[in-house]
User: What shape does this take?
Amino acid sequence: MSNNILYFHQYQNSMGNLTTNSVNNYSTTHYDGSPRKRPGLSVTQVTPGSWLHFRDIIPTGKRTACMIFSSTQKSGQKIEVRSGTPDGHLLWSLTCKTTSHPEIFTDNTSSNILFEDEGVQDIYLCFPDGFDGALNWFTFCQHYIRETSEDYYQRMQWFNESRFGHMMHWGAYSVLGRGEWVMHNDNIPKDEYIQQACIPFNPTLYDPESWAEAIYNAGQRYLTITTKHHDGFSLFETNVKDFAPYDMENTASYHKPLLSELADACRRRGIRFATYYSSLDWANEHAVAVDNAAAVDPENPAPAPLDAEWYTSEFKEHLKELVEIFDPVLIWFDGGWAAFLSQELANDVRWYLHRLSPDIIINNRLGANVGDYITPEKSIPAGAGTGLWETCMTMNDSWSYRPQDNNWKSSKVLLQQLLDCASKGGNYLLNTGPTAEGVIPQPSLDRLSEIGGWLEKWGAAVYGTRAGTLDVSAQPGTYCTVSLPGTVYITLTEWPEDLQLRIDCPVNTIHKLYWLDAPEVSLEYDIIDGLVTVALPTQSPDPLGTVMVMELDGFPEPRVYPDLALFSKVTASNVWFDNYDEFGPHKAVDGNPNTRWATDDKGPQPATLELDLGQVKTFTRIGIIQLPESIGTFTIEAEVEGFWQPILSGSNPGVNYVGYLPEPVTTRRVRLICNSTPSVYSLSLYDGND
Assistant: This one.
């Protein structure tokens, strides 16, 4: 929930002389002449000894602070914030920062205090020496510049449990149907873009209730929708001078708020509302000036400083409007490569937003990788990481509406991507691109409905789960997730040809194994070569996928087997530029996770790594840890009775790959053959019966 924003001109009463003016705001009225709800008037030219009286609730806590948004070119101007009466208890004394122009504002944040008074307070902003400049708004907040790990995980809990979200790319570009980058790609000037795309944007078929219902029925727990893409056109009414009149209410033929009803419809259904916002802007004159200056001198750390300061001021004010109008739980930033951004500014904006809305979540695209979680795009990480993440994915090949793009992924593929994300502890943000008329394409609705129907029955394997800890890669299309304290979900989207499901055997005691939709029926299983093996029926009862549940004694722990290849005698056909000391073949069997055998494209092909185990050994599985995507097609052979025999083959294995052999292999010599330039951290052999 966002903090209350108080405008200086909306004081209860005052003493002294002051004036009010619209400073760096587009207008005090709407396009039709009606008064704006947020006119953006500033209090200016305050005489010494004046005060303004407000009534508001101040957040309690030990980090309570006041943030004021102001503009002044005179240094040393002081504002005192007192409680009760104009000469009452001094809460804060702020000295306002200066800016380079009367229309450039900046935020000023007080020191933190312990504040324990609950309820509505009488608050006096006092000006002992007057004020020369413009005072726009202020807010009371809890001021964090860092948070504990526990605070972070509490704030991120809903996100980490949701697993499945909905993304929407919708805007004036939907009119043209050539993608959200059309303004840039087709080099359309802003004035022409307004005529071609913005003014014709009139979504008369838009039904926010039906949109929210479709998202709810799909089982998606939050919506992230574009409020401003790189074209700079806002899907909310803005009063920031150089962003307006270039928005949905003032420019588009629709001439009314667009997304507030959708936000309300989502919240009524328990769907959290989040906003996509691009820091990059192809239409704001100050942002364009900074980007142009950076293009001329790429080494300049501060291109066009006045324009950068000006755009930063308007950027922050625009974000304040976004928070004030929608109170989003999350802002999904994009365009973090914009030239005005720096790591310092990205961090500054992050905590500025937390002062506006203490629990808000921010992705890592604000700039310099600042944010609460990472956001791979159209890709899923090879394995579970240590931090929170969310991958965004299209249903076809486009983010926004393109009528010619009919390359739709099947419902099963989309579901597999969701399960892949969940099995690695990540979220899946699935995109739709509505038409300019406000219609979600039917192929998108069909797939959302099918996935939602599946989740209604099997969703326990997705929502609130953690990354799976037991390997199920012995068969394709199988995913593992974990729910505390000791429940493992194994989802099969493809049915093994031999009708055997194989799960890496945990250390824990297995109490029960059953199908999620039939918990009363326990399943029989065997442990073969270190794998829990379950006989399956002839076909899956659900064409999209079926979930098996394993109940354990405690959090599932995989068994750890000794590496039989460790410190073997090893040779290779190819070493990266003959650098044996750093990249020799022995690095693949030295037990050090940071060293690797590497090859180059100058050596013989295929590249071969050969192990001599020193004695005959028996193993049932093979592990490879590689540099991402360094291995293409590969074969592993064992010398059996004097002849090399293939025992395992594949292509494009994951970073941390485990291959299960159909039966135990006994040999002294093993070799890896790759039709690529492999870079291998480890080649390991394990006996699952050990």
Remarks:
- Residues 256 and 533 are 60 Å apart (CA to CA).
